[in-house]
Structure formats: C-alpha cells, structure tokens
Amino acid sequence: MKKTPILAAALLGATLVSGLAACSSNSSDDDAKPKPSKSASSAPKAVTGTCVDGFMLLDASEIGTKKAATVTDPCETVSIVGADATITLGDVTNLYFEGDSNKVTAGAVTNTFFAGNKNALTHTGAAPTVDDQGTENTVTAK
C-alpha cells in the first residue's frame, strides 16, 4: 500500500484550510462604514457662463433673479440647464437645451439638441440640424 497519495491529499487539505482561514473576515470589519475619499469632496465645481476648452455650461438657476445672460464669444458646445432663462449667445457649433422654457438668441448654430420642452432658439445663418426629443420647442431664423 502506497502512502504518497494520502500524504499529498492531507497536505493539500491543510493548505486549503489555512488559506481559507486567512480570507475570513472579522465581524467588526463588516460593521465599519466606508468614508468618502478626499478627492471626492475636493472635486472642482463646474465653471458656468464661461467657455472653457470649447465647452460652456449655462445654469438658469445661477443666472440671477432677472434670469438673463449674455455671452457673445463663440463656443463649440453650450449646454443650457434649468428653466425660464433668456440667453444671448455668439456662434455655437452644438447647442444643448436640457431645461424647459428657455429663450435663446444666438449667432450661427450648427446643431441643436432639445431634451427639454418649450424652448425657443432664434439664430442667424443657415438652419441648424435639429434633434428634438422634447415637445413644443421652436427654431426660428433671425
């Protein structure tokens, strides 16, 4: 009778048991609550009302009590969030309406995307390509 397979099986079993014991968790670790990292709390706030690297965010809630803003510098992409603002823009390649009831007068606009409702765009130049996922949005040439 050979003892080698039995010895090998015993060593393998002992190795598995000791390996699993090292993986078991301590019950006090399970109750610990995760803490947010410093980088999450120190993330930079989005710049609004300024075209940075070809992108500008306009937040109607940050425009002020008159809900009016004028930014005439051209910008590749402008995203308007919030509601009930009157905005004047320069030339824009991609204009996104992500809020409702905003009135925008702009220079030339290449593409317009409506995700909100009851927005109005008045533009100069050729008619933009329009992707309208909302309702009652209008695009008018000046």
From TrEMBL:
This is DUF3060 family protein. It comes from Frondihabitans cladoniiphilus. Residues 24-46, 123-142 are annotated as: Disordered. Keywords: Signal. Residues 1-21 form the signal peptide. It holds the Pfam family DUF3060. Residues 37-46 have a biased composition (Low complexity). The keyword 4Fe-4S does not apply.
